[in-house]
Structures are given as C-alpha cells and as structure tokens.
Amino acid sequence: MDASPSKRKQSSDVPSLVLESDNTSGTLFEPHTDCKPGLFEPRKDRKHELRTAIAAATSELDAQRARRDALEQQSGLTVERARQLSDENIDRLHRYNDTKDAAQILFGKLAELKGKTVKDIYAEYDIDLDD
Question: Are 59 and 46 in contact (CB under 8 A)?
C-alpha cells in the first residue's frame, strides 16, 4: 500500500481546515460558516486595535509626565531629590532600629544579671514599655 499523501484516502468525518488568502492585504482568514463571529478576524483589524491601544497608552504616559512636572514645580523638589531624601530617611530608620535592638539586648542582659524581668528594668529607668 502506498502511503504517499496524494494516495491517502481522506476521512469524511474529519473536518479539514482550508485557509483562504485575501490577496489585497496578504492576511489569512478562515471561512466562517459554523465559526463564532470574531474568532478568526483578519490581521489588519488586530493591528489597528494594537495601534489604538499604543496611542492611548502613550497619551496616558504623556499626561502622567506632565502631572509629575507640574508637581515638581509646585513642590520645588525634583524626583531625584525626593528619592535622595527618602533614601536618607530609610537609612536613619535602619540605624534607629539597630540601636533600639542593641538596647533591647542590653536591657535583657541587665535584667538577667539583676534577676529581674525586663519590665522591672524598664520601670527602674522610667522607660515606657511601648518605646
């Protein structure tokens, strides 16, 4: 039996997909007799949709940039300076937390040496437990 594609028998219960070409734009589409509408849209419609989405995103980006520039002028701070101040504050908070952790360790050791609780040591030195 010859197994070449031209000699094979096509099964009638297997649907075949036939693509047609739109010679004017070079797009491919499938004939829709039983297909859902919009399932196989021509490519040029999708390109138009993408171009519209890109234009809208670009417009939104331009609006955001204009808003940022207006806020920079109003506040007198540039984005770079605001970031620098934020970084400085974060560094200060890290140092504060490290110092507080060290103090907690010292109060714990002191309480252990005196045979008291940390709460008692805090009260002895007039320190609020929430500090």
Answer: no
d(CA 40, CA 30): 6
Q: What share of the chain is helix, strand, coil (3-state, %, to 5)?
A: 60, 5, 35
Contact yes or no for 72/78 (Cβ under 8 A): yes
Tell me if 105 sits within 8 A of 113, measured CB to CB: no
- The angle formed by the CA atoms of residues 51, 60 and 86, to the nearest 5 degrees, is 135
- H/E run at residue 11: none
pTM of the complete model: 0.45
What digits encode the pLDDT tens for the residues 52-63? 999 999 999 999
